[in-house]
Amino acid sequence: MTTEGEPLTKRDFEALARFRFGIRSYLRFSEETVRSHGLTPQQYQLLLALKGFPERDWASVRELADRLQLRHNSVVELINRAQGQGLVTRAAHPTDARAVRVLLTKQGEKVLSQLSALHRDELQRMGSVLMPPVWSEFPPA
Amino acid sequence: MTTEGEPLTKRDFEALARFRFGIRSYLRFSEETVRSHGLTPQQYQLLLALKGFPERDWASVRELADRLQLRHNSVVELINRAQGQGLVTRAAHPTDARAVRVLLTKQGEKVLSQLSALHRDELQRMGSVLMPPVWSEFPPA
DNA sequence: TACCTGAGTATCGTATCACGATATAAACTC
DNA sequence: GAGTTTATATCGTGATACGATACTCAGGTA
């Protein structure tokens, strides 16, 4: 059922390339949409990571670094810029005085809602282009 | 069946964030893997776009710009850097004297094969994390 | 208390890279 | 063959992720 170790066929390369193209297309859509609303792609990802954080609607810098797959210092700078635009705020962490609680502002909430709706629609529109390839022993015709 | 226009629930935000996290994780894996082999992420994407080009194993700058979702001048610079490392070459276009045919070198082929195999394995490993969210009227329990 | 080690956050300088603006050459059209 | 479009290339700029470094606080040990 798995193809681990076997060399790739032309079809495999095309599948990998197709998937990468899907990702790039989605990110390109995201970038243009988001920029037309005055945000950078990273800022949108930050807002989304906050609102979409499991069980909560805020996160610490370290948690965000994990979710955004960035180094902590990069996240600090990202937060600084977003804060400068009034999208997020910092507050005291409930239990740890070293840590920071990053929150969405009213404005951040509002923009995020608009943008997220557009992203949901685009995802529905893209459909199978974004599906990761599946390798099976007997590929479908 | 579609949810277009409706406001997003907390669950929706989490689904969007989860998907974005999947993409970031995959790209992060890709970046580290690729860099450990002496390439930049963009260079890997370039090589993959060439080898994975439908029906062919080469492409023009413009075609690459489309597949990589970049401006043409960005692709030119990307090709320059990749060419400097001996990963790709330029050749005359078969029908259009303005255009350029970009090809993989032997070395480019070799590295791409190794990296692509690792990516295929990782995709199999990641499984559902990379699946785009699905919105249905009656979400599954 | 005093100390130590590690974790969380912040600052700064650097390097990369995608882009817009611009240029040149070939193709196409009339 | 003059004008328009398409394909590639060059150059300067801006944004940003990162490593190195520093500071504060938490948690443990004596």
From TrEMBL, chains A, B:
Regions crossing the membrane: none
PROSITE patterns (UniProt xref): HTH_MARR_2
Record domain HTH marR-type: where: 9-141
GO MF term list: DNA-binding transcription factor activity
An individual GO BP term: response to stress
Pfam families assigned to the protein according to its UniProt record, in alphabetical order: MarR_2 (PF12802)
Entry-linked InterPro entries: HTH_MarR-typ, MarR/SlyA-like, WH-like_DNA-bd_sf, WH_DNA-bd_sf
Coiled coil: none
SUPFAM superfamilies: Winged helix' DNA-binding domain
Protein name, UniProt field: MarR family transcriptional regulator
Annotated organism of origin: Lentzea alba
